[in-house]
Amino acid sequence: MAVSDSLDVTFVYEAGDVIEVPVRVQLLGRAADRDRSLAIEVTSDNAEEWTDYVLPERAVLPAGASFTDYVVKLNRTEALKKDKKTIRLQIFSNEHFSLPVTEVVQVGDTVSTLIYTISFSDMFTKAPAAWEDNLVGEFSQQKFELICKVLDIDPADFNDPEVITLAKLLYISAEMTAYIQEEVRKKADREPYDVEAFDKITGEPLNFGR
């Protein structure tokens, strides 16, 4: 099994505001008949504990276990739409464990066994698999999030063309176009309106047409 020392996480396909990341800690040696504490330190240059991430209360290898998952909870914040956050987990030796193996070489790459890096954001690097510009217009994260909010669509569905079919995209285009038109009317009549229906840079109504 390949060993990894990093993970890149995005919230864009998540409906919730918390992602749990289990970081596997594997024992080399015999299990013990008692719980043993682990010395794990988490640091970051741009993420704050409790605001951006939450750590387990204890880091322990349970009695009789040969591994445990140290579960880090990542929080969705507004800052993640513009900046990627990074945290680094490092395990140290203590009275219970030594660390004889510090790295593994696999397929020409050297992977750390002591340091694990988690990067996370709420940004796209490309449009989801099921998005079709010719049906719902040019992709933007603002348009994507508005569709999911207004039509109550699970963000992850957009990565499955069998769920977001061409017929579903046509439905989305029609519904969102009607929604935008109504929000434009509300704005013109000085009624409360959805500001997310208008481009945050240009102020123009979003376009979901072909």
N-to-C terminal Cα separation, in Å? 46 Å
The share of residues in helices is 10-25%
Q: Count of DSSP E strands?
A: 11
Structural class: alpha+beta
What is the residue-mean pLDDT, rounded to a whole number?
96
Largest sheet: 4 strands, mixed
Low-confidence stretches: none
Rg, alpha carbons: 23 Å
Q: What global shape is seen?
A: elongated
Q: If strands are numbered along the chain, what order do they take across the biggest sheet?
A: 1-11-8-4
- Secondary-structure element string: EEEEEEEEEEEHHH
| Proportion of residues in β-strands | 25-35%
Number of H- or I-type helical stretches? 3
Q: Can you give a write-up of this model?
A:
By secondary structure, the chain is an alpha+beta fold. The chain is elongated and about 70 Å long. The chain is built from three helices and eleven strands; from the N terminus they run βββββββββββααα. Strand 9 and strand 10 (109-112) form a beta hairpin.
Question: What tags apply to this protein structure?
Answer:
four-stranded mixed sheet; elongated; alpha+beta; 210 residues; 18% helix; 3 helices; 27% strand
Task: Give the gist of this structure.
The chain is α+β, with helices and mostly antiparallel strands and 210 residues long. The protein contains 3 helices and 11 strands; from the N terminus they run E-E-E-E-E-E-E-E-E-E-E-H-H-H.
